[in-house]
Each structure stands twice: as structure tokens, then as C-alpha cells.
Amino acid sequence: MTATTLGADWALDWMERARAVVSANRIELIELDRAIGDGDHGENMDRGFTAVAAKLAGVTPSAPGEVLKTVATTLMSTVGGAAGPLYGTAFLRGSKAADGALDAGGVAAVLEAALEGIQARGKAEAGEKTMVDAWLPAAQAARSAAEEGSGPVEALRAAADAAAAGAEATEPMVARKGRASYLGDRSAGHRDPGAQSSALLLAAAAEAAEAL
User: Fold this and answer.
1) pLDDT for 2
2) CA contacts within 13 A on the Cβ side of 73
3) Which residues pair with 102 in a beta bridge?
4) Fewer beta carbons within 10 Å, N or C terminal of the chain?
5) Share of the chain above pLDDT 90, in %
6) pLDDT band at 1, cuts 50/70/90?
């Protein structure tokens, strides 16, 4: 039976799956970042989500927002580079938008708030070869699913699939923000590491929902 709302158990499973998928893809994220950045994205993300898993071990939160707030503060204090503030702000904004257990509209609201946080912190727009290119289509897909009457599991799957497509679409783009922008046209032909890690995290969220 498909879950009609997503509670704290889903959020905890999401973070455990996030830790695992980031660890499994650490080298890929390092190599993506080495091509157009400073090469530390995979290491930073792995350290951050390992710390998140340790922080959440043994806790019994009552709602997803509590989990997301813990994720935010942990990432801000453990992830270096640009990713820490960006992801930390995303999860913090998302935690504030999470009002109790999440239906599809709640999922969309969390993703929209996370996107707003990323854009407020990074000053990036769609098409500039950043994690916005994964989060924007994800938030839009979740909102569309909610408006069409889908449940939260379907909304997250739509978001995850859109994020994956968005990350892939960064490959031909020329970077306009961050360290990658220093390369100019040479940044084309490489997938943005932040968009890729975003897609991995949203896939983990959908898989946690589908496992309920």
C-alpha cells in the first residue's frame, strides 16, 4: 500500500539512504568536481552525510521537519566549500516548510523552499550549470504531481526523475557561477557535480518513500 503521508520514519530512512548513495558515488563526485572545480565535492559530501547519519542515530523525531533541521545544522558545520552553506540552507528552508507529516503538497512545498534557499545563497538561476538545474525541475515536477492529485510517493518519484534529467542536462552548459565559471567554454561537456549530488539525494528520498 502506498503511503498517503510521509513522516519522520521516512525522513530518517532518506538520510540513511543518502549517506549510502553519497558514499557509493564519492569517487564519481570527486572526478566530476575535479574536471570543473577543485575536486573536493565527493569528499565533502561523504563527510557531511556520514556526520548526519551519526547525529540521527538513536533519535526519535516526531516529524520530518525535525530531521531536516538536524541535517541542515550538521551539513553547515561539517561540509566544506560551497556545498555546506548551499545544502545547509536548502535543508533548513525545507525544514521550516515541513508542517507535520507530508502529503504531496507538503513534499512540493519542502522542495520549493529548498530551491529558494539554494538560490538565495548561491544567486544562481536555471541554465547556469549549478545544482539549481536539478532542484528547479524537481520542485516543479513535485508541484505538478500534487496538483494532479498524486500522493507524496509519486510526487517524490517525479521530482527525483526530473532532478536526474536536470543533472544530465548540465553537461553541455557553460558554467556561469562558482569556480567552474572560470573555465568559460571549457566547462561545457562536464556534468555539474552539485546537480549530480542533488539528483542522488532526491533519488534516495523517493526510494525511501517507495519502501514504506
Assistant:
1) 83
2) 9
3) 6
4) N
5) 91
6) low
For the domain 8-210, what is the CATH superfamily, name and number? DhaL domain (1.25.40.340)
What is the secondary structure of 66-91 as a DSSP string?
HHHHHHHHHHHHH--TTHHHHHHHHH
Instruction: List, for residues 73-103, the tens digit of each pLDDT value.
Output: 999 999 988 899 999 999 999 999 999 999 9
DSSP states along the chain: ---SSB-HHHHHHHHHHHHHHHHHTHHHHHHHHHHHS-S-HHHHHHHHHHHHHHHHTT---SSHHHHHHHHHHHHHHH--TTHHHHHHHHHHHHHHH--SSB-HHHHHHHHHHHHHHHHHHH---TTSSSTHHHHHHHHHHHHHHHHTT--HHHHHHHHHHHHHHHHHHTTTPPP-STGGGGGGGGGTTS--HHHHHHHHHHHHHHHHHHT-
Task: List the domain boundaries for the chain.
Answer: 8-210
Confidence band for 184, pLDDT divided at 50, 70 and 90: confident
CA 181 to centroid of chain Cα atoms: 22
Q: What are phi and psi of 108, to 5 degrees?
A: -60, -40
